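Morning F.,

Quick status update on the modeling queue. The single chain you submitted on Monday has been processed. Sequence for confirmation:
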Amino acid sequence: MYAPEEEAFFKTGVFRPDPRHPFVDLSGRRFRIGKVEGKKVIYVKCGVGLVNAAAATQQMLDLFDIKGIIHFGISGNANGSMQIGDVTIPGQLAQTGLWDWLKPNATMEPNDFAQFDFKSYNDPQGGENHLGKVGYSTEQFYSVAGEVNVPQRPVWFNITNNWLHVASHLQGVKLDQCANSTLCLPEKPKLVVGLKGATSNFFIDNAAYTQFLFKTFGVTSLDMESSAVVMTCLSNGYPVIAIRGLSDLAGTQKGDNTIRLFGSLAALNTAKVVIGFVKSLPINHVSRF
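Structure tokens below.
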């Protein structure tokens, strides 16, 4: 989680700390205890990347008596039908950073579900590329619903269906169009539920790779944590949802990346959707601590 994401959430003023036990510190993280819209919640900043995200999620599940995880933040956008400032709640997420990096003429590994061939991006075209090719490998997924010590190999991890149903009724959430009095988006931002997202340990600001991801996987959001949070929750049998505000075009823009211009706006719109989602959840779907 980047600083603007956390700042936007607390700037809304909806988080009310518990007066007696406002936080618990564990392994360098502060778990903030309180309420949002009258419902008990626990907030923690996981940090950037897959390991941080999985670790913070597992700590949350182990330490507190919670009902599920709402993960949120900003992300890059690979989908030409979406715009900066829009918010996406993916229905499925994939981890696209688990690679088998192979020689140019190597055979793909059995658990690879897609391939990126560097020679396809030679300029000028033609000839081999010593970087070879990458095979996208499936995760080894252990879960309470599976056989002990026998991992499944899914490509996509599905968001909890009934939480997606709740999210589908959030279209009335008003999203901001302007970052400040002089910097506004050309179109009013929207919330879209049920698209696909990709996660890796890469901050992506490259047009060719972003276009490859969209063409190959059909993903919209590109971030560095969501699939790890979702995978950890599903492994433990907990409901989970991911909410991502689109802050930039992941390299397909002209000029510099726009995350510095619109990151705070995307974070604020994300926070608004998060608050709307918490407000819409039935009382038995929030923390009991």
